[in-house]
Structure formats: C-alpha cells, structure tokens
Amino acid sequence: MSDICIVYDRVRWEEKCLCEKAIKLGHTSKMIDAKTLAISTFDGNTSHNFGDIVLQRCISHYRGLYLTACLEFLGSNVINAYSTAEICGNKLLTSVYLSRHRIPTPVTQFAFGPDVAGEVGDEMGYPLVLKPIVGSWGRMIIPIKDKDVMDSIIEMREEMSNPLNKIYYLQDYVNRPPRDIRTIVVDDRVVTAIYRYSPEGEWRTNISRGGKAELCPITNELEDICMKTSKAVGSGILGIDLMEDKEKGLVVHEVNNTVEFKGASTVSEKDIAAEIVNYASKMAM
Amino acid sequence: MVTIKCHECDKELNISNDSIKGEIVTCPDCGSDFEIVSIENDKVELKPAEKVGEDWGE
Predict the structure, then answer these.
(1) Complete domains list, chain B, with CATH
(2) What pLDDT, in 10s, does the model give residues A131-181?
(3) Order of strands across the sheet with A142-144?
(4) Hey, are the CB atoms on A11 and B56 less than 8 Å from each other?
(5) pLDDT band at B30 (very low <50, low <70, confident <90, very high)
(6) Residue A144, by phi and psi: left (phi above 0), alpha (psi -120 to 50) or beta?
(7) CATH number of A175-284
(8) What kind of fold does domain A108-172 have according to CATH?
(9) Cα–Cα distance between A269 and A278 in angstroms, integer?
C-alpha cells in the first residue's frame, strides 16, 4: 500500500474523488494545498511530507509546473513529471512534439510578430483557429472567419500585457462533426474515451462549456494514436483530445496534463479514479 | 449541513457535511466564490477564492 499525496490549489470534484478512492483501495492519502508551500534550495526543507508519490493536480498551470520542478528537486516522485507538464501545458510545445513523433495533428503554424501573423493567416486561408499557447477550457480560442477579423484580433492581442499573447498559434479549421473525442490515458493505455458534443450555439466542445459526453468506442486506431501520443509527451495521466477530420481521419489537437474526468465518469463503465490511483501506487514502488 | 453567512452579501450559504478544506462554495445569491479554509463539526471558515487565472485549466 502507498502513501499518496494529492497537491492542489483548488479542490475540484476530481481531487476529492481521487483522495476518497485511494483510501477506499487501502492506501493512505493526504491533500496538500500548493498555496501553503515554501521550498528552499538551501536544504530542501519543507514542513510537509509528500509521501511515496505525488499527484500534482493544481488548476494553475504555472503553479503546478514549477511546484513539480521543486518537488522533483526534493526527490519526490511526481505524476506527471515536469517535462510532461511543460509540454502538455503549452500548445506550441505539444504541437512540436506531436509533429516530431509523426502523430497526426492539424496543420499548425506559429508566428512571432503581428505582421507575419497576418501574412501566415492569409497564406493558410480562412477560416482558421487562433489559440493562446497556454490556457484551457477553450478560453480565448477564436475561429477567425476572414482577414478583417484576423487583423482586429491581432491588434487586440498586441495590446494585451501577457507576452505569451504575442506568440501566434494558428491552426487549420478542421472539417469535423460537431464533436471531438476525449480519451483518458493512464500509463500509455486508453482507460476510457468519450465523444464531447458542442452545446447549442457553441462550436467548442469542452464539457466546462456545457458540452455533452457520450461513450466512444476504443478502436485499434484510437488506441494506437493515443499510445504514441502518450509516449511522445513522456507518459503519465493524460487527457488526449482528438478530432475526426473528414479528410485525414483522427488528429490529436491537445494533451491535458491534469485531466478532468467528471464528465467522462458520467458515461464510462470504467472506474477512472481507481485506474489513476492504481497507477500512482505502481509508480510509488 | 452547515449554514454560514456570505461575507459579501450576508445571505445564508449552505455547506454540505461532506465538504472538505480547499473546496469552493458559491453564494447562490450574489455569486461570490469562497474557499473553505477549515471545516470542523459545525464550524466553517471561509476566505475569498482566487480569481480564475489565464493559466487555469486541466
């Protein structure tokens, strides 16, 4: 049995569920608020005991990322590892890793200035999709329908103070059904897959935006592409999002590092929390 | 169920018995979010929850 530590900064349904499941499966489990932690490079001292394994579940990407670096410095086993968190928390890096490993993904271009972003948009043609390189839940993902909208959005982005908004991530608008696929992948294996349908009046499919979940069959093609994606980003506990491109077939467009699974749990026959806890216990040994 | 007054609008907030430290409760009246700092027996301590950050998500 393992001592499983869940580090959080906001307790969602998932963190509570994981803690309860770990205890139910006979492990010891504790929850630590990341906002209370201070770690020194001098002696690595902290008043906290992080147990045999840490499930890093912060809702803030940067807090979770840099805390993971500190916990690894202290010698803790952390799921997911810093390198995986860094890749998955940044859409630009994710796209680079997916392409490097020849995993089907929508055509994506990066532009590092406003003028060249406009030129790239014109070359790609409209509609296209502009995404922030860090962020989640579909926020600030914009379908750009024509050049006028593109120019306005570029002007707006240039006024924003966050320097990441001055890096332009432009992606082909994928011709797909009004749904995408979310897979929960643990230890390079697809635990469950769901279709996420866009709610009425919304093109994004995020469950956080009211998207509806429906069970998706795990085909060999889906299993294969998810396994390769998982290995490409360093494995762990992942939420891999795919679209069904009507011309290219399955394409991976996002990999989530602290996957939410409340929506998937409502339709899946699998005990997702148990799969995660069992994996954490295995990695603690 | 524990009842506590909303720090913002003074309306009653109901907190279920299985709530834990770190969870967020939202006032149904004014919509303010609060984080549970401690919960023990019938005593609940709240603080204003962090605002949603640009880097929040999964």
Answers:
(1) 2-48 (2.20.28.160)
(2) 999 988 888 899 999 999 999 999 999 999 999 999 999 999 999 999 999
(3) A108-111, A168-172, A128-131, A142-144
(4) no
(5) very high
(6) beta
(7) 3.30.470.20
(8) Dna Ligase; domain 1 (3.30.1490)
(9) 17
Contact between chains at B58 and A8 (C-beta distance less than 8 A): no
Residue ranges of domains in chain A = 3-87, 108-172, 175-284
Check CB contact under 8 Å for A31 and B21: yes
**DSSP E strand boundaries for chain A:** 3-8, 28-33, 53-56, 78-79, 108-111, 128-131, 142-144, 168-172, 179-186, 189-197, 212-215, 237-245, 249-256
Q: Which residues of A touch B35 (CB under 8 A)?
A: 10
Residue type, A220: N
Distance, in Å, from the CA atom of A253 to the CA atom of A205, rounded to the nearest integer, reads 13
Give A284 to chain B, closest Cα distance, Å.
23
- Closest-CA residue to A27 (of A59, A10, A42, A5): A5
Pick among 3.40.50.20, 2.60.120.620, 2.60.40.1230, 3.40.630.40: CATH of A3-87: 3.40.50.20
- For residue A65, give Cα distances in angstroms to A54, A84, A88, A90, B26: 13, 9, 10, 11, 27
SS3 content of chain A, % helix, strand, coil (to 5): 40, 25, 35
Please answer yes or no on whether A132 and B54 come within 8 Å at the CB atom: yes
Neighbouring C-beta atoms of residue A216, cutoff 10 Å: 22
Would you call A52 helix, strand, or coil by DSSP? coil
- Taking CA–CA distances from B33, the nearest residue in chain A reads A10
Q: How many CB atoms lie within 10 A of CB A220?
A: 7
Separation between Cα atoms, residue B21 and residue A280, nearest integer Å: 23
Structure tokens at A279: 């994996």
Any bridge partners for residue B35, and if so which? B24, B47
Element (H, E) at B12: strand B12-15
* B23 neighbourhood in chain A, CB within 8 Å: 11, 16
Q: What is the pLDDT of residues A95-126, one digit of tens each?
A: 999 999 999 999 999 999 999 999 999 999 99
Report how far residue A144's alpha carbon sits from residue A130's, in angstroms, rounded to the nearest whole number.
7
